[in-house]
């Protein structure tokens, strides 16, 4: 019996890895422009870290976490909580008033696998701790925008404000009253959660629930003065940076820790899995996890979905990494020489491969073709006796005899090393 990967867990094959690298490299370039530092945190954390921050009655905590029940530890379903834990644990607020951090890595959620939805998936997670300025909200969204432009994918930005502990209770009351009138039309999850967390109903993905809440009161109409000013300022700053957006008054985001600004970059090209990037402000979170009173905001970008978008852009064909030089040899004596030459050429920075099993020259030339090498060095035992090898330009097919001592120099010059 063949052993297959777990459902919802996927290999990222060599053909796709270059796209992944393109995403990660572009992300690092853009993030450096925005003065971010990379942090790497563990994949396993105490369960409580997530239940406390993400919220007990969220999809994630209720049914999606990979938790080792006997040990009270959980494979991280997201990175924000872990970054906050690290921020508090390492006293990072004492070092710099504003910390700009990012991390890239796998997350784990036990949800129904489908296109763009996996059980192990990857996120670029970006967080800024230490500023409540609405400028920062706009800056982060502009960062997302820059990254999408850098990659050449088009998305649209939707924003909303969820208010704060001052104004949300009033909105909650109004919303709950609205929901209670339609309770019997809602799904089981929504019915169960509505008392404790009526906002969650707005976030339900089920069509039946969506229809029911179409005319629900909007949180935007219940913002307190401070939240209202903050939201206006976020919008003004987005305009200043010429970042396009629309206000989506029903976007509440499925996590408990959000206050004020929430946002999503969405696309119409991925079916139901429309959100490529999502985030928001979480000003009380660090305190709630036992840290100092420090505001924060962040977002997470789903790398699988971004790669799917990139793949739609153009036919990427065979993306496996090419090489500069293939060495084809005849016989064992040539193999020793080739093996050594390969090592030497790699040493000066070239990407080189050869056939370690010394198959026929025909087979080796085929391999050379497929490898995408610019040049093939052909080493025969007879030629070796004369200290000569044949250098084949794979583009033009032109072949020249070259003295073995001149090979390294030739490549040094050709590739400008
Ligand atoms: P969705 O609405 O698609 O369930 P979410 O609100 O649960 O997303 P977040 O927890 O905010 O998503 O994560 C941010 C991003 O991570 C999403 O916008 C998406 O691109 C990606 N993402 C989330 N869950 C998955 C998953 N199971 N598989 C692949 N990507 C995911
Ligand atoms: Mg989800």
> What class would the helix/strand composition place it in?
alpha+beta
Number of strands: 16
Number of domains: 2
How big a fraction of the residues is strand?
15-25%
| Unique bound compounds | adenosine-5'-triphosphate, magnesium ion
Mind summarizing the main beta sheet? 8 strands, mixed
Q: Could you state the CATH homologous superfamily of the largest domain?
A: Bira Bifunctional Protein, Domain 2
User: Treating each run of at least 4 consecutive H or I residues as one helix, how many helices?
Assistant: 16
Mean pLDDT: 92
What CATH first level of the largest domain would be assigned? Alpha Beta
Shape from CA axes? elongated
Q: Segments where pLDDT lies below 50 for 5+ residues?
A: none
Please name the CATH topology of the largest domain. BirA Bifunctional Protein, domain 2
CATH architecture of the largest domain: 2-Layer Sandwich
Molecular structure report:
The chain has 417 residues and is of the alpha+beta class. The chain has two domains: 14-167 and 223-312, Bira Bifunctional Protein, Domain 2 (BirA Bifunctional Protein, domain 2), CATH 3.30.930.10; 325-411, 3-Layer(aba) Sandwich (Rossmann fold), CATH 3.40.50.800. The protein has 16 helices and 16 strands. The chain has helices at residues 14-33, 47-54, 59-64, 80-89, 134-151, 168-180, 188-194, 199-202, 207-212, 225-240, 285-288, 303-313, 331-347, 361-371, 381-385, 407-414, and strands at residues 37-38, 44-46, 66-68, 73-75, 99-108, 120-129, 156-161, 246-247, 259-266, 275-281, 296-302, 325-329, 352-354, 375-379, 388-393, 399-403. The strands form three sheets. An eight-stranded mixed sheet has the order 1-5-6-11-10-9-7-8. Strands 13-12-14-15-16 form a five-stranded mixed sheet, with helices on both faces. Strands 2-4-3 form a three-stranded antiparallel sheet. The longest helix is centred in the N-terminal third of the chain and has 20 residues, at 14-33. The protein is elongated. It starts with 13 loop residues before the first helix and ends with a helix. The mean pLDDT is 92. Bound molecules: adenosine-5'-triphosphate (ATP) and magnesium ion (MG). Adenosine-5'-triphosphate binds next to β6, β10, β11 and α12.
């Amino acid at each position: 019996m063949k052993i297959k990967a777990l459902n919802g867990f996927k290999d990222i094959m060599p053909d796709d890895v270059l796209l992944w690298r393109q995403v990660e490299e572009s992300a690092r370039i853009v993030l450096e422009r925005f003065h971010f530092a990379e942090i790497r945190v563990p994949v396993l954390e105490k369960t409580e870290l997530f239940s406390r921050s993400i919220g007990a009655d969220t999809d994630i905590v209720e049914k999606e976490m990979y938790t080792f029940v006997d040990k009270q530890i959980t494979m991280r379903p997201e990175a924000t909580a872990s970054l906050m834990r690290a921020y508090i644990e390492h006293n990072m607020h004492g070092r710099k008033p504003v910390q700009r951090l990012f991390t890239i890595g796998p997350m784990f959620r036990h949800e129904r696998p489908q296109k763009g939805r996996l059980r192990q998936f990857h996120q670029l997670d970006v967080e800024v701790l230490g500023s409540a300025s609405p400028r920062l909200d706009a800056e982060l969204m502009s960062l997302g925008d820059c990254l999408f432009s850098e990659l050449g994918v088009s998305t649209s930005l939707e924003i909303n404000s969820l208010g704060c502990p001052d104004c949300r209770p009033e909105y909650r009351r109004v919303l709950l009253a609205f929901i209670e009138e339609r309770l019997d039309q809602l799904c089981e999850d929504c019915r169960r959660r509505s008392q404790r967390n009526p906002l969650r109903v707005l976030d339900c993905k089920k069509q039946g629930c969506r229809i029911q809440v179409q005319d629900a009161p909007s949180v935007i109409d219940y913002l307190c003065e401070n939240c209202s000013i903050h939201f206006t300022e976020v919008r003004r700053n987005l305009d200043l940076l010429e970042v396009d957006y629309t206000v989506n008054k029903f976007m509440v985001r499925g996590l408990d820790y959000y206050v004020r600004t929430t946002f999503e970059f969405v696309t119409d090209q991925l079916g139901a899995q429309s959100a490529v990037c999502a985030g928001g402000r979480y000003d009380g979170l660090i305190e709630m996890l036992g840290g100092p009173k420090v505001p924060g905001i962040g977002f997470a970008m789903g790398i699988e979905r971004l790669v799917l978008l990139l793949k739609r852009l153009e036919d990427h064909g065979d993306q496996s990494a090419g090489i500069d030089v293939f060495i084809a040899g005849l016989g064992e004596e040539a193999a020793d020489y080739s093996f050594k030459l390969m090592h030497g050429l790699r040493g000066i920075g070239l990407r080189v491969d050869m056939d370690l099993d010394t198959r026929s020259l025909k087979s080796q030339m085929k391999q050379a073709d497929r490898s995408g090498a610019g040049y093939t060095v052909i080493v025969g035992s007879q030629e070796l006796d004369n200290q000569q090898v044949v250098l084949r330009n794979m583009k033009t097919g032109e072949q020249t005899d070259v003295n073995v001592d001149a090979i390294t120099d030739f490549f040094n010059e050709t590739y400008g090393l």
